[in-house]
Write a structure and sequence with these properties.
276 residues, alpha+beta, seven-stranded antiparallel beta sheet, six-stranded antiparallel beta sheet, globular
Length: 276
């Protein structure tokens, strides 16, 4: 499966320190004969931006280096070995539409057989934005179509329950179409972010979260930014929620998420874990 990592917090100036402190989770080792690429999506000054490299021939990809210096309070990263679709910029995750970022790890079995039915449900104004040929991008636009159907796509802000509902409908739709085609159910993992929350759908492998809150949890991380050590102050109300999918080793201070769950991460509350 692909490797994914993300966080949401309330101090963009500490984003680079959060990235550096979790370098191990942002580092991936290539298996022999694999081709792979990577992408990083992040919120900066209210805009979702991307850094993507569709083909990388290095044996080790360290996204903490690629993301060095990014001042952000929200980030998604993705390392991909293609199973559906070529290694191209159009196929490189995360995907972005307006203020949403989306990343997917896994493969929709027999995707070619259900792709036309999924695309039929996506309005033309959304469908025309699909530039690649992956199952992941079609999943994203299926989600956006369902969000549009619920009247939320044009809203200035969508509440987390609206996003959860559209993600649930997306997984149910793919499962139903797969079942009707006699295919195995999709069991991959998803990350979705807008400016206010980060959601994780966990259906395969390992996925875990971590919360860093207050001076005790963050002082060492902040103080390591030696040229700007003053940033270590005012940490009492600082908070970051993190999520990682398919880590090589799950650190002891992370909490594993149950299979078949959807988790909501925000800047203000503990992770909200619900059955999918």
């Amino acid at each position: 499966m692909a490797r994914m990592f993300g966080f949401i917090g309330n101090r963009a100036d500490l984003g680079p320190r959060i990235i550096a402190a979790h370098a191990e989770l942002l580092r991936a080792h290539r298996s022999a004969g694999q081709a792979w690429g990577w992408g990083i999506g992040f919120n900066q000054s209210g805009e979702m931006l991307l850094r993507r490299r569709p083909l990388d021939d290095r044996e080790v990809i360290d996204l903490s280096v690629e993301a060095r210096g990014i001042r952000t309070d929200l980030l998604l990263s993705h390392v991909r070995t293609p199973r559906v679709g070529s290694l191209s910029t159009e196929n490189t995750q995360p995907f972005r539409y307006r203020g949403w970022l989306f990343a997917h790890a896994g493969t929709v079995v027999g995707f070619d057989r259900i792709r036309p039915k999924l695309l039929d449900l996506v309005p033309e104004f959304l469908r025309q934005n699909i530039m690649g040929d992956t199952d992941s991008e079609v999943l994203f636009y299926s989600f956006l179509a369902l969000l549009h159907g619920a009247g939320h796509l044009a809203a200035a802000e969508v509440r987390a329950e609206g996003l959860r509902a559209a993600l649930r409908e997306t997984t149910e739709l793919v499962d139903r179409l797969s079942h009707e085609a006699g295919l195995a159910a999709h069991t991959g993992n998803l990350l979705l972010a807008d400016a206010e929350c980060l959601l994780a759908v966990h259906r395969e492998g390992t996925m875990a979260t971590r919360v860093l809150e207050g001076r005790r949890a963050l002082e060492r991380i902040a103080a390591e930014d030696a040229p700007n050590a003053g940033r270590a102050q005012n940490l009492d109300n600082t908070r970051f929620c993190l999520v990682a999918s398919e880590p090589d080793v799950l650190p002891a201070d992370w909490t594993a998420l149950p299979l078949g769950s959807i988790t909501t991460l925000t800047r203000t509350h503990e992770p909200q874990v619900e059955p999918l």
